[in-house]
Amino acid sequence: MSQADPPRAVLDADIIYSRVLHELMGRVADDLRLLDLVWSDDLLAEARRSLVEKKCLTEEVATRWVDYLPRNFPDGETDVTRAADVDIEALTDDPDDRHVCALAIGLRVPATSSLTTAVICARPSEVRELRSPRQTRSSPPPSTPTPRIPRAHRAAGRWLGVRTADQGVAGRDRAGRGGALCRQGACSARPLSPGIQEFEPTSSISGTSGGKFPKRRISAHIPAHRTGKR
Amino acid sequence: MKTMHLDPTAGDQAASVAEEVDKLLREGKQVAVTVAEEQELLSPQQAGQRLGISRQHVRRLIDYGELEARQLPGSSYWKIPLSSVLACEERRGRGRELAAEWSRDLEAMGAPPE
Fold first, then answer.
1. pLDDT in tens, chain A (230 residues)
2. ipTM of the complex
């Protein structure tokens, strides 16, 4: 009866680098089924290299460290050969980010789940903040509570180039509908990163967030190959 | 917590339950025993209580195909067989065990916690 799937998420090497965060995200995915974690051999190799070089772990420990995803999420293995025809180097100047871009392209991340993916792969510091809000940020005043997930979504929005009219939230409403409606047309979003505009044709998504938060208009700049629409 | 599945076609299985209960009692532990028919139907609220999650999240798990559920004819209410809830519980237990094993291995290897 599967009508939907949990949002897919890529844990970048930054997250895998932290044992606590790594396990936390694993439990969120495995125990609560809030996410579907995906990984590739390239990503794990990058994480292993980083653990050995920056954390000074032995090869044996690093191998066991990155073994968490393949062992707990064997179905999450993703073939990134589909990204072979895309110039990954044009997407990012940082060589460390290339495997994540390849994975995202290989996955053809749909618009509704790209925000979650972005939070985790691009903003590990935000995730850390969510994990221990008292240690890293002061509590919001009671009159204007800041929900945790929308805060992360705003961070994702900044990364993705999503512009919200009032810095609002993007996500699913209480009925589980994704707040995205694809249509062709001009898009006023900021560029995602140098190179992302090279994808043609582009389309924009727009919609409203719902739930208990006030409805807000959102729009995002998503490359056509990622939305699957022409 | 242990769940035992008893098959009516396979001999005297009630004795194994009594044995298990007796073992725990001898260890001085307090024991709660729930007896239920596997095809008993639970509401999302009851399934959520059993799994330690909200009713809304149960509904999401149904949508994801993680929990088998059905709607009774002419009704919009979901009913979830107990067997499906138990299967989900076991799956989560296996995942937790794998995660704990991973943590133990890293501890034994002297890996830093962060």
1. 446 778 778 887 778 888 888 888 888 888 888 888 888 888 888 889 989 998 899 999 999 999 999 998 888 888 776 556 666 666 666 666 677 777 766 666 544 344 444 445 544 454 444 444 444 444 454 444 444 444 544 544 444 443 333 333 233 333 333 332 222 232 333 333 333 333 333 333 344 444 444 444 444 455 556 555 55
2. 0.71
* Cβ contact, residue pair A72, B95, below 8 Å: yes
Residue B17: give the domain boundaries: 1-35
Q: Which residue of B has its CA nearest to A25?
A: B99
- Residue in B60, B99, B112 nearest the CB of A72: B99
Q: What is the DSSP string of A5-21?
A: -PPEEE--HHHHHSHHH
pTM comes to 0.56
**B60–A1 C-beta distance less than 8 A:** no
List the CATH number of the domain containing B93: 1.10.1660
Shortest Cα distance, chain A CAs vs residue B40, angstroms: 20
Task: Please give the distance of CA B72 from its chain centroid, rounded to a whole number.
Answer: 23
Distance, CA of A129 to CA of A131 (rounded, Å): 5
Does any domain span residue B12? yes
Co-location of B26 and B55 in the same domain: no
